[in-house]
């Protein structure tokens, strides 16, 4: 069949025996691609009307100082919901772009120190008045070979989640270090934590550990799905450990082969 897609599973038994299962996944892949195109088109189509609605709402709010308080409240509610929808559409488009790109992305050695500093700055902005102790430890100046835009999306989702789910006065530690086999970016918080039954499903689209706890956190439920796909595109994996009431640790483990030593500037005399 033209363009047939096969998945091959090989299991080894002892020294010589192998069980090889070949699965035809052509239809599954086609369905998946139809789903992706559909989501991407719908999100695109929703973006323009939403921008128009948000624009008019902003004008109405700016010029509505003499409106009755009930009407002002209604407008402000409408603006909050329009912003939520915009965030959803942006994340849906980002997720489908990252899924479509797969591993075929522009990759270069990324300076993690600079990237994490930028993320730290935006985390402080998002935290706003909430006082948090946020620390950044960059223990290696080695570069990570990857796509900077995608890595930025993944790491900032983890850091902004930590900000969202950590109460005032608690800590967030961002750490970049190397082990024998991995380059690790970890975000550890002393926030609300997650019950272990939720952990295996957290990277599914729209999965939220306990929706009733999250009213008002403003998330889209797509952040960790984005993280998962970025990591897949970089041959990396996400390790999650957490205890309710104590905090969580999200660690991105990249194969050590992705590490590049920084170029040494040559001194010319
Ligand atoms: P959301 O937009 O809801 O934050 P995510 O996909 O980023 O969506 O995360 C999925 C769920 O995982 C969240 O709704 C929350 O229940 C849980 N979660 C993620 N990060 C943390 C964290 N640092 N502490 C506690 N719970 C978290």
UniProtKB/TrEMBL annotation:
GO MF, one annotated term? kinase activity
> What keywords appear on the UniProt entry?
ATP-binding, Cell membrane, Coiled coil, Kinase, Membrane, Nucleotide-binding, Phosphate transport, Phosphoprotein, Transferase, Transmembrane, Transmembrane helix, Transport, Two-component regulatory system
**According to its UniProt entry, what is the function of this protein?**
Member of the two-component regulatory system PhoR/PhoB involved in the phosphate regulon genes expression. PhoR may function as a membrane-associated protein kinase that phosphorylates PhoB in response to environmental signals.
The source's domain of life comes to: Bacteria
Reactions listed under catalytic activity: ATP + protein L-histidine = ADP + protein N-phospho-L-histidine
**What is the protein's major site of localization?**
membrane
Q: What class of enzyme is it?
A: transferase
Recorded E.C. number(s)? 2.7.13.3
Histidine kinase domain residues are: 41-258
In the UniProt record, what gene is named as encoding this protein? phoR
The keyword Nucleotide-binding is annotated on this UniProt entry: yes
| Name this protein carries in UniProt | Phosphate regulon sensor protein PhoR
| Localization terms from the record | Cell membrane
């Amino acid at each position: 069949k033209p363009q047939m897609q096969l998945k091959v599973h090989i299991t080894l038994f002892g020294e010589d025996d192998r069980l090889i299962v070949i699965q035809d996944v052509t239809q599954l892949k086609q369905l998946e691609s139809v789903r992706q195109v559909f989501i991407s088109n719908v999100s695109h189509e929703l973006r323009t009307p939403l921008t128009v609605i948000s624009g008019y709402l902003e004008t109405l709010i700016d010029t509505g100082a003499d409106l009755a308080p009930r009407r002002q409240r209604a407008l402000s509610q409408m603006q909050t919901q329009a912003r939520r929808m915009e965030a959803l559409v942006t994340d849906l488009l980002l997720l489908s772009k990252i899924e479509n790109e797969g591993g075929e992305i522009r990759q270069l050695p990324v300076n993690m120190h600079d990237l994490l500093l930028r993320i730290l700055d935006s985390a402080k902005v998002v935290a706003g008045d909430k006082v948090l102790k946020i620390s950044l430890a960059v223990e290696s100046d080695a570069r990570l070979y990857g796509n900077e835009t995608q890595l930025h999306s993944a790491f900032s989702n983890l850091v902004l989640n930590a900000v969202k789910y950590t109460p005032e006065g608690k800590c967030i530690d961002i750490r970049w270090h190397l082990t024998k086999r991995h380059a690790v970016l970890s975000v550890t918080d002393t926030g609300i934590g997650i019950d272990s039954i939720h952990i295996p499903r957290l990277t599914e689209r729209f999965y939220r550990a306990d929706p009733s706890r999250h009213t008002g956190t403003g998330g889209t439920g797509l952040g960790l799905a984005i993280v998962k796909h970025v990591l897949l595109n970089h041959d990396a994996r996400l390790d999650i450990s957490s205890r309710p009431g104590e905090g969580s640790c999200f660690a991105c483990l990249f194969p050590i082969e992705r590490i590049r030593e920084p170029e040494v500037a040559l001194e010319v005399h």
